[in-house]
Amino acid sequence: MIEKEIQISNIELIDLYGVNDAKLDVIRELFPKIRIVARGDMIKVMGDPDEIVFFEQKLNELIAFYHKYNKLTADDINRLVNEYPPGHDDDLKRNDVLVFGRNGKPITARTKNQRKLVQAVNTNDLVFAIGPAGSGKTYTAIALAVRALKNKEVRRIILSRPAVEAGENLGFLPGD
């Protein structure tokens, strides 16, 4: 177990720590194997050397994300720490482009699970994706379908909705 002090100099502390250290608490939850103590612009980290190196790298990525987008939310922290492997860069993400939108914006698999879904679709004929709402299952599936249509792998896309209620009231369906 080692101890390291990290100087924070190029970001407002409220933007990194959050109000009442809310963002710092999220960071602490994401790194359970190390102890993080913040005193002003110094962060003291205690734990395994490999974990400390990983923490410092992710901290620098969080600060770089803040400077690029002028915001850093708890969701951004969660996503950046959990879903991108250590040392990811924009070139790696450019290779994961599924399709380009109408305005030329690249549509990519943004999370680790979305990349797993893309890989499963590429290797299997039929894929069932389950998970919580808002995790990008439908978004990724539609992007893959549009890619297949543009590449002339399919002639048409058929969109359907469930006929069975999944906890919510669907109302009257056509033909009812």
Model description:
The chain is an alpha+beta fold. It folds into two domains: 2-83, K Homology domain, type 1 (Ribosomal Protein S8, Chain: A, domain 1), CATH 3.30.1370.10; 90-150, no CATH class. Helix content is 43%, strand content 14%. It contains seven helices and five strands, in the order βααββαααββαα. The strands form two sheets. Strands 1-3-2 form a three-stranded antiparallel β-sheet, covered by helices on one side. α6 (112-123) crosses α7 (137-150). The longest helix is centred in the middle third of the chain and has 21 residues, at 49-69. It is elongated, with a radius of gyration of 21 Å. Mean pLDDT is 83; it is low at 89-94.
List the helices and strands and how they pair.
Layout: E1 2-7, H1 13-17, H2 22-30, E2 35-39, E3 42-47, H3 49-69, H4 74-83, H5 90-94, E4 97-100, E5 106-108, H6 112-123, H7 137-150
Helix pairs in contact: 2-4, 6-7
Kindly identify the CATH topology of the largest domain.
Answer: Ribosomal Protein S8, Chain: A, domain 1
How are the strands of the biggest sheet laid out side by side?
A: 1-3-2
Structural class: alpha+beta
The helix content, as a percent range, equals 40-55%
State the oligomer: single chain
Q: What does the overall shape look like?
A: elongated
State the fourth-level CATH superfamily of the largest domain: K Homology domain, type 1
Which CATH C-level class of the largest domain is it?
Alpha Beta
> In the CATH hierarchy, what is the architecture of the largest domain at level 2?
2-Layer Sandwich
**Computed CA radius of gyration, to the nearest angstrom:** 21 Å
Could you tell me the strand content as a percent range?
5-15%
